[in-house]
Design goal:
Elements lengths: L15 E5 L6 H8 L3 H7 L13 E5 L12 E4 L6 H8 L3 H7 L13 E4 L41 H15 L6 E2 L1 H17 L12 H7 L6 E9 L2 H9 L7 H6 L6 E8 L4 E9 L1
Parallel strand pairs: 5-7
Antiparallel strand pairs: 1-2, 3-4, 6-8, 7-8
């Protein structure tokens, strides 16, 4: 059989400058600021298809020739199992020949799982998000479940921030014609417990230090849900947290889609001091 040829994406440039990410920076904003596509920054910094930045991150920005005529919306897509170049083109509204040219492909059939492709987009991609599959919570066990002690409230100087974050999220939803989320005490208890846990161990994720996931935590807090989701951010204030989530670029925008969900109806928020900024945990649910 003939050897498999792995075409290379457009090369990154030899001339570059460094940029230290500041709070509020996002990939599209930097692409516009430096006159290069998002893909150039992603490839130069080995980001894969991620668009996530964090304050203090040092990026190398290619500023030499090689991307003339490229829109700042050009972005990296990593080929998944079962994808074809024609299918990717249909999903993003791109011509196959253009994808071949931009990515220097000699044969549209010679793409492989994990390959980085540059998508030459001229505007933010608008894709229909897949309908989420919501897991129905099992019926409560007949044996009594111990109720955990209530999570400690955030310090008094930031005690109003959970409600402020909800207000900002609902304000954002209103701008998209979506109804507000209702504030829920059980979801708040679960979110605050996770925020405290993250602050205590010094790092955060959707997994608790006891191995719990968001479903487990909201059930422990007494919230019976048919659907749930969670967003977290290490941020300076509520507005910055919402901006971080809403600045995500489709299709890599799970937090943005959660904030704009038409299925989830309730929310609870926890806040904890990290020593540099604060952990914001937003737990979403649908009874």
């Amino acid at each position: 059989p003939e050897p498999t040829v792995t075409p290379s994406p457009p090369p990154t440039q030899s001339t570059a400058i460094t940029h230290t990410v500041q709070p509020g920076d996002n990939l599209l904003g930097l692409a516009r600021q430096y006159g290069v596509p998002m893909a150039a920054i992603q490839l130069q910094n080995r980001m894969g298809d991620s668009t996530t930045l964090y304050a203090g991150q040092v990026l190398t920005i290619p500023v030499d020739t090689g991307w003339e005529g490229a829109s700042p919306y050009w972005i990296v897509h990593i080929v998944s199992e079962g994808e074809t170049l024609a299918g990717i083109g249909r999903a993003y509204g791109l011509d196959v020949e253009m994808l071949e040219t931009v990515n220097r492909l000699t044969d549209a059939d010679l793409i492989h799982v994990g390959q980085e492709l540059v998508l030459p987009l001229d505007a933010p991609v608008v894709m229909v998000a897949p309908t989420p599959t919501w897991t129905v919570a099992p019926p409560p066990s007949p044996s009594p479940t111990p109720v955990p002690p209530p999570a400690a409230l955030p310090p008094s100087d930031i005690a109003a921030w959970p409600h402020e974050l909800v207000r900002l999220i609902n304000q954002t939803r209103a701008s998209y014609g979506l109804p507000p989320l209702a504030y829920n005490d059980a979801l708040t208890a679960a979110a605050q417990g996770q925020a405290n846990d993250c602050a205590q161990r010094g790092w955060c994720s959707h997994t608790g230090s006891d191995g719990s996931d968001v479903k487990t935590r909201i059930l422990r807090a007494g919230y019976e849900a048919t659907g749930w989701a969670e967003c977290w951010a290490q941020s300076l204030n509520p507005q910055h947290a919402v901006d971080m989530w809403m600045d995500e670029v489709p299709p890599n925008d799970p937090h943005r889609r959660t904030l704009l969900s038409t299925w989830l109806t309730e929310i609870g928020v926890g806040v904890a001091d990290t020593g540099w900024g604060y952990y914001f945990i937003a737990d979403f649910g649908r009874p």
